[in-house]
Write a structure and sequence with these properties.
alpha+beta; Chitinase A, domain 3; 4-stranded antiparallel β-sheet; 11 strands
Amino acid sequence: MQLPILPYRLACCALLTVLLSGAPAWGQPKPRPIVTLDRIVAVVNDEVITQQELSARVDFAFRQLQQQGTPPPPREVIERQLIERLIADRVQMQHARDIGLRVDDAELDRALARIAEENKMSLTQIRATLQKDGVPFEKFREDIRNEITLSRLREREVAQKIVITESEIDNFIQAQQTQGRNDEYNISHILVTVPENATPEQLQTRRTRAEQALAQLKGGTDFRQVAAAFSDAPEALQGGLLGWRESSRLPALFLDALRPLKTGELSELLRSPNGFHILKLNERRGGQAPIMVQQTRARHILIKTNELVSEAEVRNRLLILKERLDNKADFAELARSRSEDSSASRGGDLGWLNPGDTVPEFEQAMNALKPGEISQPVRSPFGWHLIEVLERRTQDMTREGQRLNARQALRERKTDEAYQEWVRQLRDRAYIEQRLE
């Protein structure tokens, strides 16, 4: 006898449900515990962060701490730390997407090749190492893409807007001369951040957290463990280690706290606009060696992208120009007619460049060239470049280096402060809902 169509379909659906649940098809089903495969732990504007995503980060953090020999804090502490970083990264990536900032596959492949070269490994070996650690290669690949994007976003939205005046450099050098020698400090750092426009209650909560961290340190708890448990700084899972920093590259607040300390001693609680800080002096050394700087004289052709001109189109234009240059076309003439940089009137000549004078992407590509060699198209926050190195020299910049070092130190300090403030404002403007239990 043929079953009616509708009941037959219902019977099949019921049987499928039973089979998928693992219960017997006939008789009383046995109760089974409910297993949550995944869930949402945070909402950031129109995107979500899942428990699986957070757990993967937490597992990786535990492996890092284990490799460093640092006793890990409770898992829920690491989860709280990392969900804040995931939220901060997510709002930045959303902003990058909104302004059209992208890292294409070709650029990502070049970055992965550089990583392999720096680690003296092939990409196949890197893939095998990641697989052994339980990290999918595609996940690693996308993490690198995100890191490049965030770095470029920092340069575009913050670093390139920093202005250093000559009077600031003069004042900086004068202050250094007043202090005497330029000491270097090996330090570790804990930061407990405070939200912008924090209420008195929020401020007291964060102060109490910082005081708890300091109390544990004074009680003999390992600094690395306390940093992993309490610090909101990027280096928290590296035990809070900042490493060697010249006094010129430290905020005055840090420098004043470090000067009276002996090796192994802790600062008191320090308050800055970003939050509460604790410093540990690991080691100190003094003196300044002569500054020998390799300078590069280079020229370039820059073509910018916009709403009407895509990345691929700009890159293809430069590839055509590169082919003409390889066939003995005049670089200066092409730069004057095609480059969209202010150096075009000089045939693209940038003069003698010191380390740090250009953005990292440009400098890295330039440093890889030999004199007389022309690069492939190079992407930077300003657009796409063809770079030619004309010559190199090594200069004794001990005297001139004072101003160079001062400018770099001031830029680094201002950029760090401005970037932290920019991320905080970006986060405060976002819709964020935390669901971590």
